[in-house]
Amino acid sequence: MKYQLGEFVRFIDERREGYITKIINDDMVGVTGDDDFEIPVMVSNITRVHGHPSNAEFKELVHDVSEDKDFIERGIYLVAVPDANKGSVIHFYVVNESSYQVMLSLKTHSKNIYKGVFFDRLGAQAQAKVYSAALPDLDLWPTLNFQALFYSSSNREPKKPLSFNIKFGSKDFSGSKQKIKALNAQGWLFRMDEPELVIDTEKLKESFFKPVAEKPSVQKPAKEVDLHIDKLRDDYAFLNNKEILDIQLAHFQSNLEAAIVHKYDSIVFIHGVGNGILQQHIHKAASKNPQVKTFMDAQKQKFGYGATVIFFK
């Protein structure tokens, strides 16, 4: 496949252009234009738009700092950055913050099939784009298998090779993006090499004599608890239906128990109407809790049929 996700291409036989948002197979890709419709097209029917910012190949900065006094031993990161034009496409970069030259390879692994997708030398304090994937196909992403060899011309003990494997899931993108200075972009950062372990002997001694901390008290819940997923998690767009339901039920259970601890007379859970599955789970759990006196639909004039009020004994 000579094209990559996120590249800007033009159709040969018609006046249309857009970004590659899906790799269907070696002969066909999906192209999304300004109308946000993805069209499958043969790769023989498109051409790369040279000079477009999305197609600018990364110029690797090779900076040999092997002889620098402040030699940096560690700092190899995998960075996931959304495409600037199509956020549904994620580009992966390897950022080398160490002073070593790195010979880096990447193979994907899916359904017992290994495929080499990247092999090159990465300079010290340099970065390289190694892979791209479509976010809607997250469940189909392969495992990424990285291997790296380190080189320095200075008088240093040879560094052990690096092996790093990762299979991404929605939880990996649940946190907020951070500023990646090396790429001048917002993204998610994953450390590939372990940071150097530094033992503070004084703090270690203190830990032996530190009194056991008291268990934190149960936080007082709100009188009305909204269980809509967009109120609970910022990354809900990355979650599947089962993960959403599990999060909502866990939030319901913790607030129900907290209400009992704080001796509430009642508490309202706003679950919405939807397909009724969340409401059924709430009613089932409430009916089995020995501290629950009764439950019913909350004020219809305020919540409609999308909320349940639980009364305690």
Structure description:
The protein has five helices and 18 strands. It is α+β, with helices and mostly antiparallel strands and 313 residues long. The chain is flat and about 75 Å long. Residues 57-63 have low confidence and may be disordered. 22% of the residues are buried. It has helices at residues 201-209, 229-232, 241-261, 277-288, 300-303; strands at residues 8-11, 17-25, 28-32, 38-42, 46-48, 76-82, 89-96, 101-110, 113-122, 126-134, 143-151, 162-166, 178-180, 185-191, 224-226, 266-270, 292-297, 307-312. The strands form four sheets. It has a five-stranded antiparallel sheet, with no helix packed on it. A five-stranded antiparallel sheet has the order 10-7-6-14-13, with no helix packed on it. The protein has a four-stranded antiparallel sheet with strand order 9-8-11-12, with no helix packed on it.
Strand content: 35-45%
**C-alpha Rg, in Å?**
26 Å
* Adjacency order of strands in the biggest sheet: 4-3-2-1-5
End-to-end Cα distance: 66 Å
**Which consecutive residue ranges, at least 5 long each, have pLDDT under 50?**
57-63
The overall strand count is 18
The whole-number mean of residue pLDDT values reads 85
Helix coverage percent: 10-25%
* Total helical elements: 5
Q: Tell me about the largest β-sheet.
A: 5 strands, antiparallel
Order of helices and strands: EEEEEEEEEEEEEEHEHHEHEHE
